[in-house]
Amino acid sequence: MLNKLTSPIGSILSFIVITVSAFYFSTEKAVVRPVDDSPTAALFASIFPDENGEPQALSQWQGKIVVLNFWATWCGPCREEMPELSTLHSEYKDKNVVVLGIALDEMGAIKAFAAETPVSYPLFSAEEYGGELAANLGNDKSALPYTVIIKPDGTIANTYFGRISKVLLEETLLKLLP
């Protein structure tokens, strides 16, 4: 009697496990992880479309001081800080400093935003991968805006949750400049 009962239950459980496993592995997006396990390795291994839809390898900014700003078009504080980030980028671009904006938005929203509100620094569409990237760089609160200052050697100098200012960023930047 027990064998007759366990055989159908075992078959059903096996079917469920196989189906769930197949669904999980077929829908999971492949993310290539670099061998280097530093928090910035995945960032510099990433390629995202810029505000014009052109793919850009973030490795082109490796070796610079990077002010990395995670934002979204629907985020009020993100939009408020962008003029100061633009000014910072313009003033420090000749000092080995670059500001990069990674949006957790789709390309269409970023294109429309950039046409309406131009900024002096590159903007990228990371969509849902941007949240994972921000978390790897210390954003354990899933907050926006979130800003990371990365040293030329790839280590993190400082992180900021919420709206930042040029003055606040310069406190860290000035310590990193020769």
Folded structure, characterized:
This protein is α/β, with parallel strands linked by helices. Helix content is 43%, strand content 19%. It folds into 2 domains: 1-30; 41-176, 3-Layer(aba) Sandwich (Glutaredoxin). It has 6 helices and 7 strands, in the order ααβββαβαβαββα. A 5-stranded mixed beta sheet has the order 5-4-3-6-7, with helices on both faces. Strand 6 and strand 7 form a beta hairpin. The longest helix is centred in the first third of the chain and has 26 residues, at 2-27. The chain starts with a helix and ends with a helix.
The end-to-end distance, rounded to whole angstroms, is 81 Å
Q: What's the number of structural domains?
A: 2
Number of strands: 7
Average pLDDT reading: 85
Biggest sheet overview: 5 strands, mixed
Spans where pLDDT lies below 50 across 5 or more residues: 13-35
What is the strand arrangement across the widest sheet?
5-4-3-6-7
Offer a few descriptive terms.
178 residues; alpha/beta; Glutaredoxin
Give the SSE layout.
Layout: H1 2-27, H2 41-44, E1 47-49, E2 55-57, E3 65-71, H3 76-92, E4 97-103, H4 107-116, E5 123-125, H5 129-136, E6 146-150, E7 156-161, H6 166-176
Brief account:
The chain has 178 residues and is α/β, with parallel strands linked by helices. The protein contains six helices and seven strands, in the order ααβββαβαβαββα.
